[in-house]
Structure of FAD-binding oxidoreductase:
Amino acid sequence: MYGTRVVVLGAGIVGCACARELALAGLEVTVVDRGAAASATTAHGEGNVLVSDKGPGPELELAQLSRRLWPQVLTAVAERLAHAARAVEWEPKGGIVVATTDAGARELTRFAAGQRTAGVHTEVLDADALADAEPYVTREHTAALHYPEDAQVQPAAAAAALLADALAAGAVLRTDCEVLAAVTRGGRITGVRTSSGLLEADWFVNAAGPWSGELSTRLGAPVDIRPRRGDVLVTTPLPPTVFHKVYDADYVGAVGSSAGDLQTSAVVESTRGGSVLVGSSRRRVGFDDRLRPEVLSAIAVKALRLFPTLAGVPVMRAYGGFRPYVPDHLPIIGADPRLTGLWHVGGHEGAGIGLSVGSARLLRELMLDQPTAMDPAPFRVDRPAVLGGGAGTVVEEAV
Ligand SMILES: Cc1cc2nc3c(=O)[nH]c(=O)nc-3n(C[C@H](O)[C@H](O)[C@H](O)COP(=O)(O)OP(=O)(O)OC[C@H]3O[C@@H](n4cnc5c(N)ncnc54)[C@H](O)[C@@H]3O)c2cc1C
C-alpha cells in the first residue's frame, strides 16, 4: 500500500481523522478544502462524544468503538505533539439525562434498559444523587440517569490535532482549493479538477460534511447527504454551574426524528473557559444560515426548565451550523459502487465529532482490506436512503 495516493476531500473533523488513519498506515495523503481546515460544521457545533443518546444498533456500536478509540488516539497524538493533544480539552465528564414528565420518565427507563443490553453503562440517580451531581438542575424531575462514558472535546482543536498528526506522518494539506469535478476513465475516478488545478490519485474520499451530497453530484456519483441546521447559545463565563453534559430526555426523540420543522430540546454543558453552551435545535432549511430569534428563544425556554438558575445569565453570542443528515440517520462509510476509487465518509448528523475516529478506523480497514473493528455493512453506500431519491445513477465523465 506504500505509494498509494489518496486525496481526502474536506478538512473537517471527519476528513482530518481519515487523513490521520491513512497517513499513519503509510499511504500518500493529500487533504484539500475550499476553505481552511476545521472551519465549517466542525467549528459550528458542540464537542460531545456521546453514547447516551443512541439506542442499540450500528450507530451505538460505532459510538462505542469511537469512545474506546478517542483516549488511545489522543495518547498517540500526545506522544508526538503534546501541545496539540492538550488543546483538545478531552474531558470524560459523563452525561446526565433528566426527564421532567411521567411519560418522559417511562420512555427514558425503557430506552436505558435497551442500552444496558448493548453494553452501555447507566446508573439511575435518585433525587439526592442528582442534587449532588448537578446542584443547580431543576428539582421538578421525574427520572435521571447518569452515563459515565459520555465525554467532551473542543471540536476544532480536536480536528486540528488529528490533522497535525496526519501532517507529521507525511500528509499534505491544501486549503482554498475547491473541488469542482471528477476526471474518470473506464468507470474509475483518476483525478479531481479543483480551483487550483488537477489532482490525480488512486483513491478519493468524499468527506465534505453537509456538502457531501453536492460534492458527490459534482463527481458524478450522488449520495443523499443534506444539511440539518442547529443553533447554540453561549453564556458569558460563569462560576461552576454545570458539571456534566446535561440534557432533557426529549433530546433523544429529536435526534431520531426526521421532521423538517423546528425541534428543540435542552442540552446544556460547560466549557473549560466557563461559558455554558445551551443547545439545541434541528431544522431542515437548506443552507440558510440566518439566526432566528424564535429558535434561540425556544432553546432558551427549554434550557431554563432544566436549569432555572440560568435565568438572568447574559448570553454572549449565538451560532449555528449544518449537521450532515442522511434520511435513515446512519452515516455512510464505504466505497462507491458506481465509481471505482471513490469512497464516502459522512452523514454523521449531530454526532460527527464523536464518531469521527471510529469512522476513520473503519475506512482504513475497508480500504486496506483488513479485518474490521465492527460490521461496516449498515454504513454501506448502496442502501436505499443513500442512493434513493434520484441519487442512484452515476454520471459518466463529469468533468
Ligand atoms: C449545532 C450543532 C451541534 C453539534 N454538536 C455536536 C456534538 O456535540 N457532538 C458531535 O459529535 N457532533 C456534533 N455536531 C455535528 C458535528 O459538528 C458534525 O457531524 C461534524 O462536524 C461533521 O464533520 P465533517 O468533517 O463531516 O464536516 P465539516 O466540518 O463541514 O467539513 C467538511 C469540509 O468540506 C469542505 N468542502 C465542502 N465542499 C467542498 C468542495 N467542493 N471542495 C473542497 N472542500 C469542500 C468544507 O469547506 C468543510 O471544511 C453538531 C453540529 C451542530 C450544527
